[in-house]
Amino acid sequence: MSIRNQQVADRAFLQQLYRDDYFPDAVLDKGRAVLLRLCERIEAERPADLVALYALTGAATEEFNRLEAEFEAAGSEIETVAREEIAEDFWFVASAYGFADADIEELIAPREW
Fold first, then answer.
1. Cα–Cα distance for residue pair 38/42, rounded to 1 Å
2. Span 59-87, mean pLDDT?
3. Residue 53, Cβ neighbours under 10 Å: how many?
4. Is the Cβ–Cβ distance between 28 and 81 less than 8 Å?
5. pLDDT digit string, tens, across residues 2-28
6. Which whole-number Å values give the CA distances from 97 to 6, 32, 47, 50, in the listed order?
């Protein structure tokens, strides 16, 4: 499935992290894929409210949780800069799909990073 929301399609997810050699591109690629799958799910399922959106973003956050071990194996981690960048991209996704009032902490509530 391709992303229909042009604002999302044009977004360079995790851009700041890709510019920093501390973060391995191969793992960032997996994180970017998580965000794109989230967008595809939002477009397919069309959540009617924030509760439904939070269920989708929570599942995507859990995928990021599982990436932490890969970051660590590559000598990296999801630290402050990465946490902020990831959270910002989650909020961007919510906003792009009409949920600008979403709480950023609720979007990533199950995070372990």
1. 6
2. 96
3. 22
4. no
5. 899 999 999 999 999 999 999 999 999
6. 11, 17, 9, 11
Environment class of 57 (CB within 10 Å of its CB; exposed 0-12, middle 13-18, buried 19+): buried
Whose tokens are 């989230």? That residue is 38
Q: Output the CA–CA distances (angstroms, integers) from residue 42 to 25, 46, 76, 96, in the order listed.
A: 25, 5, 30, 11
pLDDT of 96 over the 90 cut = yes
Q: Is the pTM of this model over 0.70?
A: yes
Domain spans of the chain, in order of start: 9-107
Name the token pair of 108.
Answer: 């990533």
Average pLDDT for the chain: 97
Write down the H helix ranges in the chain: 6-9, 15-18, 25-45, 50-73, 80-96, 104-107
| Residue 19, token pair as written in the block | 């510019």
- The dihedral built from the CA positions of residue 6, 94, 50 and 1, taken in this order, carries a sign that is positive
